[in-house]
Structure formats: C-alpha cells, structure tokens
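Sanity check. The docking grid for adenosine-5'-diphosphate depends on where the pocket ends up, so I'm generating a full predicted complex first rather than guessing from homology. Inputs follow.
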Amino acid sequence: MIPDSATPAAAAAATPAAATPVVEIRGVDKTFATASGGVVALQGIDLTIRAGEFVSLIGPSGCGKSTLLRIIGDLTGPSAGDVLVNGKPSHRARLDRDYGMVFQAPVLMDWRTVARNVELPLEVMRYPKADRQARSKRLLDLVELGEFGNRYPWQLSGGMQQRVAIARAFAFDPALILMDEPFGALDEMTRERMNLELMRIWRETETTIVFVTHSIPEAVFLSTRVVVMSPRPGRVNRVVEVDLPPLRTFETREERRYFELVTEVREALRGFEEAAAVDEVVDARIRVEGIG
Ligand code: ADP
Ligand code: MG
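Predicted complex below; grid placement will be based on this.
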C-alpha cells in the first residue's frame, strides 16, 4: 500500500512550511514618543494571515493602519509584541526580500523607462538580464501596460503609474505584498477598474496581500477578510469573513450578499463614529459646565 504521505497533497500538508502562516502578529503595541509624552497608536494587536489570503485593514483615520502595515514590513518596530513573516522575524523577512510594497503615491524613477522601473528590484537582487526582461514584460502585460515598457513614468497618467508600481511589487514573486491605500488618489471609475485588475493579478500570482483602505466597498470587493480597527489606540475590533464567491466581477457589486457585507463593515465602523461623537459632547460639557 502507498503511504498517505506519498501523495503530493499529504506531503505538502506534512511540511512545516505549508502550515506556517505568512503573517503572525502577537500582542503588538506601538507607542510613538512625542514632545507631549507619547502617542499610543496600536494596542494588543493579534492577527494571523494565511497563505493566499487578501486581508484589508480598515478603520478611522489615525487608527494605526499604516503603522501596522509598516510594522509588518519592518519599516518601523513594535514597542511590544512579535511579528513573524513566513515564520521569521520581520527584519529577517525584509532582508530575504519576502515583501513587495505599494504606497499611495507611486514611487517611480523618472529617468528610467517603465520596463526598467519594474526591473529595478530584480537588478538589485541580481537576476540575470534575460530573466529581468521576461519578468518585467509579463508583469506589464498583466497590468495591461505591455505597450508602454519604453515610455517614461512622466508620460503616463496617475492610474497607469500606479499600475507600474504594482507590476514592480509583484515582479520578484514576493510571498507577501503590502499595499497602503494604493488607489486612494484615483477617481472612482479608475479605482473600480484597478480593483478588478488587482483581483486578477492576486489570483494569478497566488500571493498573499495585506491592503489598507478607507473604502468599505473596496475592502469588501477585494478581500477574503476585512479587519475593522477601532480609533486610536488602534485595536482589532472585528474581523469580517467575506464569503463571496472567489471570482469577483463587476456584477459582484450588485449581489445581495455584497450589500450585506458592506453594511456589516459599515456598522462595525459606525459604532465608533457615534462613540467618538458622544465623547466629544461629554468633553465639551465638562469644559463648559465643569461637570464630570
Ligand atoms: P492611519 O494610517 O490609520 O491613518 P497612522 O498609522 O498613520 O494611522 O497613525 C496612527 C497614529 O500614530 C496617529 O495618531 C498618528 O498621528 C500617529 N503617528 C504615526 N506616525 C507617527 C510618528 N512617526 N510619530 C508620532 N506619531 C505618529
Ligand atoms: Mg495611513
């Protein structure tokens, strides 16, 4: 009889690597030192992200979304707690180039062509030239900029530039892509198109994505899970599982389940707006009437 572990699936399940989450955040706090003492940006964050997930972080402005993303990416350190990426400390993961990052404004080199911008991380990582060119071509095709490889960034629209930044982030097959409001500066129509495009690239590359956004529809449309954060100090308030069919299309935005999930996330967020408003009223009364 053939033992179970001889089948590829069983063998994969038996390897520790397959079981290791891509991101493990345990008890993370972050306090920024400021002139007036300190700002507690994050408190007691626990979150585990598995391979192939698309997780959005959403929450009121200033709740620590960017800070959490930067901690995952080792651009800043936590004040307490641990972050493991592919089972390694995040610093090691950064040295191993386990990350691709995309920010709100595309950071492109104006003196390099579009193709050579996508090739930049591959040059740094010493990929052979032919491999660099092939990868850059494939990724530019994937973001529908195959014809624009020889142009310069300043010759492209904002949306096209952001697609170049996305192609570059995916070019070296990082295990994890971190995106901080990448479509925040785009108009609604372009944004919806970019959402479809990102969805397609994510499925095709089978990458894991952590995505910061302000937009509830965007979070629900793209994600397998939406993490709703509370106002500062940021905590994980609620995690909404997005049980929509994996293949999202233009029609997804008209489905009943999509609306229900948008409402669920909106309500999780609205609680805070009301709580913040009540706090403000109470604060004002304390100041004006001296009660409290
Ligand atoms: P978000 O991305 O959710 O809008 P951020 O993560 O940018 O929020 O910021 C969370 C909180 O931490 C905010 O109150 C912000 O002012 C503060 N903060 C962020 N970075 C710094 C810093 N380098 N120094 C001091 N305070 C900071
Ligand atoms: Mg931010």
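Relevant for the grid: Strands lie at 23-34, 37-49, 54-58, 80-85, 88-89, 99-102, 176-180, 208-212, 225-229, 236-241.
Also worth noting: The chain is about 40% helix and 20% strand.
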